[in-house]
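Thread: Modeling a multi-component assembly for a lab meeting

Hi all, long-time lurker, first post. My supervisor asked me to bring a structural picture of a complex we are working on to next week's group meeting, and I have zero experience with this. I have the sequence lines for every component (596 residues in total). Could someone generate the structure of the whole assembly? Inputs are pasted exactly as I received them:
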Amino acid sequence: MVVPAVPERPAGGTTWQTLERLGGTVTGVHGRDWRPRYLQLAEELRAKIMSGELAPGTLMPSETELAESSGLSRTSVRNAIRQLREWGLVRAEQGRGTYVRAPRQRVRRRNTERYQWEKDRVLLDEDERLKTGATEHDTGLTVDDLKFHAEYTRVDANEEMAAALQVEPGTPLLRRVYWTSSRHENAPLTVSYSYLPYDLVAANPDLLDASKEPWPGGTQHQLYTLGIELDRIDDEIRARPPSPDEAELLDIDPGVSVLTVRKTSVDTTGRVVEVADVVMPGDRTELVYSHKLQRWKT
Amino acid sequence: MVVPAVPERPAGGTTWQTLERLGGTVTGVHGRDWRPRYLQLAEELRAKIMSGELAPGTLMPSETELAESSGLSRTSVRNAIRQLREWGLVRAEQGRGTYVRAPRQRVRRRNTERYQWEKDRVLLDEDERLKTGATEHDTGLTVDDLKFHAEYTRVDANEEMAAALQVEPGTPLLRRVYWTSSRHENAPLTVSYSYLPYDLVAANPDLLDASKEPWPGGTQHQLYTLGIELDRIDDEIRARPPSPDEAELLDIDPGVSVLTVRKTSVDTTGRVVEVADVVMPGDRTELVYSHKLQRWKT
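Re: Modeling a multi-component assembly
Sure thing. I ran the full set together rather than chain by chain. Output:
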């Protein structure tokens, strides 16, 4: 067997040493579990929560108890608990301890297929469009499992939104806030902030009326009533901590990150017709993008 | 003009009230700046940092000074500073105050194009493949601007990785850790953990030798030397806080989130040949996915 060469150590020891702790440099150590020990403990506890051995509402063992039973340091135990909080599996209640949470609805959002799927549905009869929507598609839930709220307002484009929509700052926009939750949970699965040029939308007064939501066939069908066909949707994805209000709204630990998608919809004339910012809790959301590659010519 | 209807308030006041604070319910208020005030302050300060009015290394004004000059509460000022930290624009130094950071290299990773671009390059001459790579493509930097490190080890598949690679737990894997940084910075732009079945790779001993990195043409060319052609790459994206070690390695505030991509490469026979976990700092990374939609038949 060829023994892998040890590469030259980079200047500035810190990066290298940190990488060693992260398990990067274990040349010569074959096999074994290469994960940090706090993570191994967190995964053991996760398995117990998943199996129901630690049921929802159970008070978690204290740090001292966990340190004794696992043989790990208090720091490792604390990191393991932090990890469980980030996964959304437990919640710390000030002065009362850490409790196992009820399992939460997960969302696996496959935007690669979703956008074309939504487009194909636009041309279906209303009966068909009423039956299901994109969130059902992502969650495996039915229309009856989901609560949906919409709120419309008219705002002036600030500089950022004006640039995104390719309009002048101050241009009137229709701002739509959507939040969708499972019927069994209070906190939404996603919150979405959508912006369209107001004058564009006003051509169909129904599109200014939030009580028409959820609109069968969604935004692509709403645009269709204006004679607009989409040609492209771009997703720009970022990660950040929640604002305090977002943590409360999504019912997440302030230490849970959020995933954000800025979705830009471009019509067949090359015009940006909608910009939407979608905010999703990082403890229960995955975004999946699938890339089919062209075969080499043989 | 049609006045948007106020939708029925959902049961459970908390969500609704939180949404009001988030600016969701401002029906009747037309125009104005709808962003929270702390964010407006953060954006003003960002503009000053971007323009150089607040230069790298400058000590930021204290909370008291900012509260006085802005007329905002201490809480809003604290949230604005937290926001600047999350954007990676300032760094808090224990007991010394908050300093403006030097601007950091940003990465805008367009995976929709990147994977096909990498595949097309595999069949080029080595001279051509040597000239540039995917990270150059994402950053606009040249080969000379980038430092690249690779570290290879042999490990046994744990349960998670065995499931991802569709092999038995305990199967030997080649684990490769890559980190790439700008020549002007110490902290990497990305850290990538790649796993391939060891026996698959061992057919070409050069692929077990980390000193052959950076390999011209990257992983897709490495697989090509084994007679493997990729058919599909799936990206699974998540957001989470960094582990303490990751925060140190990436030189980010513990309050900066990381974006992670689990990249699964499938060959033309339907076999998973590589699984890679890519970790990117959320203060300076965007992932872009572009979706071209099929036209309706008219």
